[in-house]
């Protein structure tokens, strides 16, 4: 697969010089988003070759993350074919969540169903998400707040879970008017923060097994894991009324944002291990996309100062688009994992595309100004 050689060379030069990267015109943002979205739809079944059966579903978390970004693209796309794609995907899933009753990953796809319900107002789009979430609320898990080598996964014992499930609960509170969804979510979210958040570093450990672990002396803060949290915060915040809960999430969001811009590499991406960029020099696009999305959302919604945060967004977007091939494949997406690892220019994943489209949707709004 060919990369846009001349363009990439120019972009890499720009992203290596702080202050020189600039957002492209809106039509250019739309063009590359459409290219990536179309490539992914054409290759929609490619990820179904996974060995793990629990990942080999179109309502798994991997696809759920894709749908979240694809729905944001559908809102701005020049054609309604993307909503048709999402409606067909949801119908093929029978509007159902994954099989794990409590598992956060198996709730992720509910975010798509709820957004489609908001747009089309069809009761069947809401029914199964509501049924599952009410069941969990009325039958709270008795497991401890620890992962223990995946022995306990009914509660949000790994940081990725904070993207997967809490936005479903926040959206349901907004849609139904039942504050109990929001209150239950808040209590469980705070429990996870108390378990995994490093108050000094303003970052999340992926799970308990990383808290005391070091990589050549460095604390291990996985980029995509923190990207899950940071992106998830935006999905929650937009659902909250003013009050103590919103103040709590706002502070967490702003604290993470202020630290994240200090960790961006000179080339514009965020390293797979946020505090150990020298150990992981390979670009990685899924974490970078979530951070770019979250920062751009913050400016667009009045949470972040434009003068402070726009340069990081510009460099992040330039880095991301430099890893899109001529065919529309978003490269350098780290495969499914639970910590820093490897990525390759010709390898992608559906959740990385979802993060890229989410980032583009907010960068597009910024470019208007």
Automatic annotation (TrEMBL):
SUPFAM superfamilies the record matches: Six-hairpin glycosidases
Domain of life: Bacteria
Keywords for the protein's UniProt record, in alphabetical order: Hydrolase, Signal
InterPro entries: 6-hairpin_glycosidase_sf, 6hp_glycosidase-like_sf, Glyco_hydro_88, PolySaccharide_Degr_Enz
Signal peptide (residue range): 1-21
MF annotations from Gene Ontology: hydrolase activity
Pfam families, sorted: Glyco_hydro_88
PANTHER family: UNSATURATED RHAMNOGALACTURONAN HYDROLASE (EUROFUNG)
Protein name: Glycoside hydrolase family 105 protein
Taxonomic lineage: Bacteria, Pseudomonadati, Pseudomonadota, Gammaproteobacteria, Alteromonadales
């Amino acid at each position: 697969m060919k990369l846009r050689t001349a363009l990439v060379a120019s972009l890499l030069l720009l992203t290596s010089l702080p202050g020189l990267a600039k957002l492209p015109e809106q039509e250019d943002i739309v063009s590359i988003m459409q290219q990536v979205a179309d490539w992914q739809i054409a290759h929609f079944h490619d990820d179904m070759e996974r060995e793990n059966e629990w990942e080999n579903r179109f309502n798994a978390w991997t696809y759920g993350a894709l749908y979240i970004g694809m729905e944001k693209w559908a809102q701005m796309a020049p054609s309604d074919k993307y909503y048709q794609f999402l409606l067909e995907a949801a119908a093929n899933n029978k509007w159902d969540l994954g099989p794990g009753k409590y598992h956060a990953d198996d709730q992720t796809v509910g975010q798509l169903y709820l957004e489609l319900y908001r747009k089309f107002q069809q009761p069947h789009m809401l029914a199964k998400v509501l049924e599952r979430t009410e069941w969990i609320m009325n039958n709270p898990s008795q497991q401890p707040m620890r992962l223990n080598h995946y022995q306990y996964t009914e509660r949000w014992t790994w940081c990725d879970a904070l993207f997967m499930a809490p936005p479903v609960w926040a959206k349901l509170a907004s849609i139904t008017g039942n504050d109990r969804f929001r209150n239950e979510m808040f209590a469980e979210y705070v429990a996870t923060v108390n378990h995994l958040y490093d108050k000094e570093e303003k970052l999340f450990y992926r799970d308990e097994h990383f808290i005391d672990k070091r990589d050549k002396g460095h604390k291990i803060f996985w980029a995509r894991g923190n990207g899950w949290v940071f992106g998830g915060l935006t999905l929650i915040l937009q659902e909250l009324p003013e009050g103590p809960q919103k103040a709590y999430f706002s502070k967490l969001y702003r604290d993470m944002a202020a630290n994240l811009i200090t960790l961006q590499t000179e080339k514009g991406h965020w390293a797979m291990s946020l505090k150990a960029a020298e150990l992981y020099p390979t670009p990685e696009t899924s974490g970078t996309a979530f951070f770019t999305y979250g920062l751009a959302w913050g400016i667009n919604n009045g949470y972040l100062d434009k003068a402070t945060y726009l340069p990081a967004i510009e460099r992040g977007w330039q880095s991301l688009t430099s890893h899109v091939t001529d065919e529309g494949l978003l490269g350098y997406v780290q495969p499914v994992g639970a910590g820093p690892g490897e990525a390759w220019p010709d390898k992608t994943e559906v959740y990385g595309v979802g993060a890229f489209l989410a980032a583009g949707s907010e960068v597009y709004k910024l470019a208007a100004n």
